[in-house]
Design a protein that fits this description.
CATH architecture of the largest domain: 7 Propeller
Mean pLDDT: 89
CATH superfamily of the largest domain: YVTN repeat-like/Quinoprotein amine dehydrogenase
Largest sheet: 11 strands, antiparallel
Structural class: mainly beta
Shape: elongated
Length: about 475
């Protein structure tokens, strides 16, 4: 297992690079194999230093069409060469058989790969990977087939990246000297699903799904996410469902796209946001009414108790105080990490530089923290009160009065989750969920230990806590599929 441990610790060498020049439809004449790329790079490296020796090679993602590695060929390749016994190295990039990047530098000595040890090319191992493991093209990230060459435990290791039969990220490694398989691993999901916690008992449903949201109304419960997630996508088989009986049965709702946010207003009317649209009045029999459509993606969204709505998109805040009948716009002075709207219609933003800004009389004014050494980690507005979580604790401030008070917490709250008048907080890596009382000074209460789950959302209805979780992924060894 020493090989698997070492290869798991390597940096991700498939660089995701999008060619900004529209080149769709280019023929694949400019695609080359790994060894062909080495030959081009080695010639240039020898001109730089005649002792230059190969360290590593990897193909690079692009959007130029072509075969995307189908026959072991790609448009783009990166490779490192080093002068043995020195710290001198050079990074060379190749695009369509031409050198487009030449960047010398310094680094500590690493194992090199003698050229005469590379007996197998990417065109050889791609066919072996298909024959032995039925490897398919990658999607979502590292599209098509990708290839890397590294020296591991003194061996030249040529690796093919793609997807297995269940579209899980996979890498098959071969000894470039003789073509032997030395490693076959894929990323398998574990965890994920909807957890209901009641009277100290946890129940997991929708196992293996990526539940990216949950919201409780007065009598209804809605969850959304992806039924068949992969490591790099939770929009493969998106769904949104609702339950009228506390999760015993579910009805699928209609949505034009994958859902990013959902909430109930005080009349139990359901609102949902998709990538660029906002809909109101969704039911099992109706898609509802579209109240907002944008050209750019919705980045952040917030709603108040009386259902004022604020949407952040492409440097602007779109906001309404009449449930979407009319919308106003405000230019964001600095990039926002959070946008909030109060019951009075005040806009409050937390910038990426962790400054708190409130829009008053048409201007954005900064709200100073009570302690200069405190930096906001997250921020929410409930009713007309501002909640800030910092390393020292949680601060509360009335938006109109300006007096601060503090809530006691046992652990550092990193992220807030707001559901109407309810406020939850999660600790580092979402390991613990706290319920934070927003109406008095009582201490926050730990409601769930999430150390074995990746928590994405949380809400409570009656005496049941609902927790949305997504799968985690780990490298596992593969077995060679048996042909029927």
């Amino acid at each position: 297992m020493s090989f698997f441990k070492k290869i798991s610790c390597l940096l991700v060498v498939i660089l995701v690079f999008v060619n900004l020049i529209g080149s769709e439809g280019i023929a694949s004449d400019g695609e080359i194999t790994l060894k062909e790329a080495i030959n081009i790079g080695l010639q240039r490296a020898k001109e730089w230093n005649e002792k230059a020796t190969l360290i590593s090679v990897n193909s690079v993602d692009e959007n130029m069409g072509g075969s995307r590695g189908e026959k072991g060929k790609r448009f783009y390749w990166f490779m490192f060469f080093m002068v043995p016994g020195t710290e001198d190295y050079v990074l060379i990039g190749i695009s369509e058989k031409k050198i487009t990047l030449f960047r010398p530098g310094k680094q500590s000595q690493v194992p090199t790969i003698p050229y005469d040890e590379i007996k197998f090319d990417s065109s050889d191992v791609i066919q072996l990977a298909k024959d032995k493991f039925r490897l398919k093209k990658g999607k979502d990230w590292a599209t098509g087939y990708h290839f890397t060459l590294d020296s591991i435990d003194g061996m030249p290791i040529l690796t093919v990246f793609g997807n297995d039969r269940d579209n899980r990220f996979t890498r098959i490694s071969f000894n470039a000297k003789n073509g032997d398989v030395v490693s076959a691993i894929h990323k398998l999901p574990y965890g994920g699903g909807l957890i209901s916690k009641r009277f100290g008992t946890d129940n997991l449903t929708k196992k293996g799904m990526a539940i990216t949201g949950v919201v409780a109304g007065n009598n209804n419960l809605v969850v959304w996410g992806d039924k068949k997630p992969t490591q790099f996508s939770t929009t493969k088989q998106p769904f949104i469902e609702w339950s009228h009986n506390n999760g015993e049965t579910w009805t699928e709702l209609q949505a034009n796209n994958y859902v990013t946010h959902a909430w109930f207003d005080i009349n139990d009317q359901l609102y949902i946001a998709t990538e660029k649209e906002l809909w109101a009045g969704i039911t099992s029999n109706s898609k509802g009414t579209k109240i907002l459509s944008l050209d750019q993606s919705i980045e952040k969204i917030d709603y108040s108790i009386n259902n004022h709505i604020a949407v952040l998109s492409n440097g602007k805040v779109y906001y309404t105080t009449n449930q979407g009948e009319n919308w106003e716009q405000a230019i964001v002075p600095k990039p926002f990490y959070v946008i909030q709207i109060s019951d009075d219609g005040d806009l409050v933003g937390l910038t990426e530089e962790r400054k708190i800004l409130q829009k008053t009389n048409g201007k954005w004014n900064e709200i100073s923290m009570p302690n200069r050494n405190d930096e906001p980690l997250d921020m929410k507005v409930i009713n007309n009160r501002l909640f800030i979580t910092t390393q020292s604790g949680i601060w509360i401030r009335d938006l109109q009065e300006g007096n601060w008070r503090k809530i006691k917490v046992d652990e550092e709250i990193v992220i807030f989750v707001k559901k109407g008048e309810k406020l939850f907080g999660t600790t580092h890596r979402g390991e613990t969920i706290y319920s934070i009382n927003t109406k008095d000074k009582r201490k926050s209460e730990k409601v769930f230990d999430a150390r074995d789950f990746i928590v994405w959302d949380v809400d409570i209805m009656g005496d049941t806590l609902w927790i949305a979780t997504i799968p985690d992924y780990s490298w596992e060894e593969m077995t060679i599929p048996q042909r029927r």
